[in-house]
Amino acid sequence: MDPREVETEANSDQNQSSNVYHLALDIGGSLVKLVYFTKDDDHIVDGEEGISREKTSVKSKGSRDYPVLNGKLNFKKFETSKINDCLQFIKTMNLHLGGNQQQENTGSQTTAIKATGGGSYKYADLFKERLGISLDKEDEMDCLVAGANFLLEVVHQEAFTYMGDQKQFVKIDQNDLYPYLLVNIGSGVGMIKVEGDGKFERVSGTSIGGGSFWGLGKLLTKCKSFDELLDLSYRGNNRAVDMLVGDIYGGMDYSKIGLSSTAIASSFGRAISENKELKDYNPEDIARSLLRLISNNIGQISYLNALRFGLKRIFFGGFFIRRHPFTMDTLSVAVNFWSKGEAKAMFLRHEGFLGAVGAFMSSDKHGLKELLGNEVVQQTPNKLSFAVDKIQVPIDVELNGDESIECSVYAA
Ligand SMILES: Nc1ncnc2c1ncn2[C@@H]1O[C@H](COP(=O)(O)OP(=O)(O)O)[C@@H](O)[C@H]1O
Ligand SMILES: CC(C)(COP(=O)(O)O)[C@@H](O)C(=O)NCCC(=O)O
């Protein structure tokens, strides 16, 4: 193939950058999440002057027409420890300037980007220094809830259950969505009782979360990346490390209290009775046991909080999950076991991007207003809300976190 025909990733990024509109960030303890909208590359040439403008269409709702922008919602993540890569990406793509290279900062007006998460405080000066932008901070819990509600409302087949290798999409009835428990498993874990749009309370949390899995896993297995740790856990057997009920009860179940001989009596408990050192254990088995320990514990605390408030549905988000079958299965089994089948664990396809999507939705709509105001549509809407049509995501595509989904945005 002629190498000139090959579009490199960098080229394709730069091509895309001319159509960027609107960026929001969630800067967490472990990962930085970016959500940005890109318009479709679909220009109408205006007669002989050759002025091109983005093609918009009109959406009719009831008796009113609304201008519509067609494009993509893009998702990208970076490790927070590699924040420089993230800054470089934003710079290369001109995401902070709406993709417009000409629109360098004049100094008179600082561009503000919506951002949430602890890093929006920690790295505010760095963003100012390196990109000349200020971070317009939004509360992390507000954003998580807004993001979860938005995704559950607009993305087709966003929520699913996972148990015993069976994945089942859940049809969300908008009139029967609330109340629910949102459990966000990031570096730490937050548990939020959600009763409606903007109506929520953070009811619990635990510091034993994704950061604990990754941190302990790194120390114990010497693996170099989170993906490697997940991969190890996939291949391991926790029986080599955990003390089971059967180990204590001479191979028998403790049926009186509902514990089978294969249930874990004590995570990592086998290590105390064996004359072995860390090097004598398989890293795979350690990773597996650790993943079960953390997931079981979160599943149990989640169930207890659901019980506290009589909630039947628990939605799990956060990048700890990474759609890892074993993690989802462990959380589901824990919730199912403790609630005796009363409560259901559910997962979100855009699990790690709840906060970033929430920050994105909170943006003021000036850019969009300008963009739409220049278009063929005469009627400028009074109230701009960033509404998005029901989004279809191909269900057979396994997403690794960086992706884009087709959508159309309209001001309603
Ligand atoms: N590529 C990755 N690098 C580091 N951690 C990852 C990665 N993918 C998933 N994780 C897990 O996700 C957790 C972070 O989840 P996230 O929802 O982004 O939280 P935070 O907002 O605290 O960064 C990490 O602690 C780790 O367990
Ligand atoms: C402090 C945090 C809100 C920060 O969010 P994160 O970056 O972990 O997504 C979270 O780590 C948390 O809720 N930790 C648990 C603290 C506790 O309730 O004990």
Task: Describe what this molecule looks like in 3D.
Pathway: Cofactor biosynthesis; coenzyme A biosynthesis; CoA from (R)-pantothenate: step 1/5. Keywords: ATP-binding, Coenzyme A biosynthesis, Cytoplasm, Kinase, Nucleotide-binding, Transferase. It comes from Lupinus albus. It contains 13 helices and 19 strands. The protein is α+β, with helices and mostly antiparallel strands and 412 residues long. It folds into 2 domains: 195 residues, Nucleotidyltransferase, domain 5 (2-Layer Sandwich); 151 residues, Nucleotidyltransferase, domain 5 (2-Layer Sandwich). The strands form 4 sheets. Strands 1, 2, 5, 6, 7, 8, 18 and 19 form an 8-stranded mixed sheet that branches. Helix 11 links the parallel strand 16 and strand 17. The longest helix is centred in the C-terminal third of the chain and has 26 residues. The radius of gyration is 24 Å and the shape is globular. The two termini are 47 Å apart. The site of the ligand CC(C)(COP(=O)(O)O)[C@@H](O)C(=O)NCCC(=O)O has 13 residues, from strand 12 and strand 13.
